[in-house]
Amino acid sequence: MRRRRFETRAIHEGQDPDPATGSVIPPIYQTSTFAQSAPGEHKGYEYARTSNPTRTALETCLASLEEGQYGLAFASGMAAITAVAYLLSPGDHVVLPDDVYGGTYRLFVRVLERYGIASTFVDMTDLTRVEAALTPKTRMVLTETPTNPYLKVVDIAAISELARARDALVVVDNTFASPYFQRPLPLGADIVAHSTTKYLGGHSDVVGGAVVMNSKEIYETLKFHQNSAGAVPSPFDCWLVLRGVRTLGIRMERHAGNAMTVAEFLRGHRAVARVYYPGLPEHPGHQIARKQMSGFGGMVSFTVRGGAKAARAVASSTEVFILGESLGGVEALLDHPASMTHASLAGSPLQVDEGLIRLSVGIEHADDLVDDLKQALAQVK
Ligand SMILES: *Cc1c(COP(=O)(O)O)cnc(C)c1O
Predict the structure, then answer these.
(1) pTM over 0.90
(2) Which residue, 109, 191, 271, 365, is most buried by CB atoms nearer than 10 A?
(3) 211 in helix, strand or coil?
(4) Cα separation of 115 and 223, whole Å?
(5) Going by CA atoms, what residue is nearest to atom 7 of ligand 1?
(6) Of 152, 198, 251, 358, which residue is the catalytic one?
(7) Ligand 1 atom 6: the closest Cα is on which residue?
């Protein structure tokens, strides 16, 4: 049978009707343990930390959407990235982007460094810098694209080639694009990581994470760590993510359409100094984005003329956009990175512009989003 398309797999992969009852939706197997017919004889499930059928459904579906062989779900995006870090040993070195997600930065600098794992942060849009950062001890290149909050675009195929030549694993945090718009494994990555809290869950009602890979060896190592460390998602949380995933395609289309409308509006506004959106032709990463993404996503950042004071005024004045951290839900969210998501970078070389605002453009009506930004920007004198 021919391979089904993405939208069909999102609804059906791992989600056959329940064999016991015919339930069309995979049940929430809210159990900690499973009955055995004789010691060691069971239907593939023994204890729910090790595996649970609701989690299996989610892991199977996510693997398919990322075009990978194996998926593993975790209790959060950070738990998923921590599992990936378990592939490293003391003495190993990792290269990451200089505007990597703050939680990943904190994990590598404030936790893993103590265990003898060194990291270097570089601007990954500049391949010569990535190459210069690779050392004989580099075992992993962990990247994100588009990045947060400047939405820089990293060339996944080029980075994968550089890393492969040095025997380093390539990990791509695909949270911002979602597998609907970008699939790093066919581009050469070894592992894809996600915060399913964001677009995959899509409704701001669950925290979760996942990794997908093709290597059986890596899968078995990470599965062993998943069971050993135990940062597993609850059956209900898996069910919520799976429910979100079924509408991923149509949500992402609307997020991206609205984001383009918003970016074009902001670009023409006198109170806006600069707009960052990979879908705009003048964005420095636009050509690479066109090559490796099938859409430009729902995140838009911009700087307000007048710096911190003006940005704070705009951030406090929206009525549809909710001021809050996180992203990827159906509702529009607005973030002032310098004082919220990226506050921990203050005073460091990675500090973000205080005039910057980051939008997670929701799937409300685009005109309401534009009207809201228009009235909020009118606060900038
Ligand atoms: C939110 C996020 C994470 C962390 O995920 P949690 O689910 O909050 O633990 C990692 N990477 C990116 C790009 C994120 O946006």
Answers:
(1) yes
(2) 191
(3) strand
(4) 21
(5) 77
(6) 198
(7) 77
Cα 77 to ligand 1 centre (Å): 5
Q: Which CATH class is domain 6-245?
A: alpha beta
Look at strands 93-97 and 191-195 and give their pairing.
unpaired
Distance from the alpha carbon of residue 60 to the mean position of ligand 1, in angstroms: 21
Is residue 1 predicted with pLDDT exceeding 70?
A: no
Start-to-end Cα distance in the chain:
62
The predicted-structure confidence for 4-53, as pLDDT tens digits, reads as follows 999 999 999 999 999 889 999 999 999 999 999 999 999 999 999 999 99
Q: CATH 3.90.1150.10 in the chain, residues?
A: 248-377
Q: Which residue in the list 49, 106, 243, 274 is annotated as catalytic?
A: 49
Closest residue by Cα to residue 223 from 212, 237, 208: 212
CATH 3.40.640.10 maps onto the chain at: 6-245
Active site residue: 101, 105, 180, 276, which one? Answer: 101
Residue 49 bears catalytic tag = yes
Mean pLDDT of 42-65: 97
Instruction: Give the fold, CATH level 3, of 248-377.
Output: Aspartate Aminotransferase, domain 1 (3.90.1150)
Question: How far is Cα 246 from Cα 80, in angstroms, rounded to an integer?
Answer: 21
Mean pLDDT of all residues in the chain?
96
Q: Which atom of ligand 1 is nearest to the CA of 80?
A: 9
Could you tell me where the DSSP H helices lie in the chain? Answer: 6-12, 53-65, 77-85, 102-106, 127-133, 156-165, 178-181, 216-229, 235-245, 248-267, 286-292, 307-315, 366-377
